[in-house]
């Protein structure tokens, strides 16, 4: 059984990737400072508590577990907060990533899967968006991820450190068995916010803008199940370990849903009415963001298998299960 180090593995996407890694025969070792992740979500391997900016702690963990690769999820993700405090995002996201890369290289590890984002693209100039789309991020969050992508390209070009850059569109859903799910504090993601409103934990769900040039006036987003994302990470890892070259992949369903379609889906999944509030568009929100994942299909053999209803049903099971267990 090969060991892999999963930084940020107690977080949302990281923990679901640990589940997929274990199912594929890997031993995931989670490295997380638990600032955004949750100890309860580390269920498929040991937890090493530490900060990715701490080179000495990383050196010790690499020495203790001898991983064959790193999956790097750790970092700050709140777009709005990145505008308020850009320095923190460059410190955590860029500085942390470089510290992890250098620790890996010292340990003789030559492969990284990097958790990136469609936010590196900025305003879409063509939809759906493939890997050739211009990258012009609108906020420090997206720019910090792009800077790491560019650093990884240099590491590959100059010292042979190989990587797979995984650009997510809207990760959503939960483990079908309800063991782990989407849990952010504070919560800023659309599907959990909508489900919380249906559960009465919030007064309403806000739709920002109903005057876009889309089929019903609300923005279109590409929701992809987190377990489908996890499968893509496992496929990219196997490819790198087999000697594959560095590549970047856009990961989405390839079909977008409007906010109103999302609302209708939440009502179907929960069987509950969803109180709504209308608000103006938010600055920087694009009318349509949809992925072209042709490259991932061709290179990784990856095709997402779960549609929006499956995403919402799994999310509902997770969130309602937290109420039943008193969490």
The protein's oligomeric status is single chain
Shape: globular
Largest beta sheet, briefly? Answer: 7 strands, parallel
The overall strand count is 14
* Series of H and E elements: EHEEHEHHEHEEHEEEHEEHEEHH
The proportion of strand residues reads 15-25%
Helical element count? 10
CATH architecture of the largest domain: 3-Layer(aba) Sandwich
Structural class computed from helices and strand pairing: alpha/beta
Q: What is the residue-averaged pLDDT? A: 95
- Unreliable runs: none
How many domains, in number, for the residues? 2
Radius of gyration: 19 Å
Query: What is the third-level CATH name, the topology of the largest domain?
Result: Rossmann fold
What is the CATH H-level superfamily of the largest domain? Answer: NAD(P)-binding Rossmann-like Domain
Topology, pairings included?
Blueprint: E1 3-7, H1 12-23, E2 27-32, E3 47-49, H2 55-65, E4 69-72, H3 79-84, H4 86-106, E5 111-117, H5 140-159, E6 162-168, E7 170-172, H6 190-198, E8 205-208, E9 220-221, E10 223-225, H7 226-241, E11 247-251, E12 257-258, H8 259-270, E13 276-279, E14 288-289, H9 294-300, H10 308-324
Parallel strand pairs: 1-2, 1-4, 2-3, 4-5, 5-6, 6-11, 7-10, 8-13, 9-14
Antiparallel strand pairs: 9-12
Helix pairs in contact: 1-7, 2-4, 4-5, 6-8, 6-10, 8-10
